Amino acid sequence: LNISCKMETTNHISIKLYDLVGREVLSRSGSRLTNGTGFLNLNTSSIPTGRYHLIVRSGNFSEVVPILRIN
Hints:
Helix content is 0%, strand content 69%. The chain contains no helices and 6 strands.
């Protein structure tokens, strides 16, 4: 799963993937993106087909993105 993020300032970013019952299935934190557009890769090959919620956090920013994983 490739994620594109546009950052206004240099900041750390945290990405977590949850299944529909709220269990965390993948996590990536500590990545530092600089000002501008950056890309992160989250390896989802170990999770089964299904619906998930991706939560992206950086500084005061937080966004939830629905994800459909198809093998």
